[in-house]
Design goal:
The protein is built from three helices and no strands. With 84 residues, it is mostly helical.
């Protein structure tokens, strides 16, 4: 447990941020999984419709620092190639 008051506050802040980061990461993963599931079931048209939603989730995760920019670019590229 933290001893100083600043360390205690840092613990509270990091716990609060973890909730937001986990929520954003889950949104990212579910968007990608939905597209991959649609592609596996040969519904590429529906998968292409969900592509902007996945791009938005990836871009927000990159902007907030949850994933790195090259990781986001790679995910977007693979999704685009998958839905072709």
């Amino acid at each position: 447990m933290p001893i100083t008051s600043s360390a205690h506050k840092a613990l509270r802040v990091s716990a609060r941020k973890r909730v937001f980061n986990d929520r954003r990461k889950n949104a990212l993963k579910t968007a990608i999984k939905k597209i991959e599931k649609l592609v596996k079931s040969d519904q590429k048209i529906e998968a292409k419709k969900l592509l902007p939603v996945a791009y938005q989730a990836i871009d927000k995760a990159v902007k907030k620092g949850i994933i790195k920019s090259n990781n986001g670019a790679r995910k977007k590229s693979r999704l685009a190639r998958l839905t072709k």
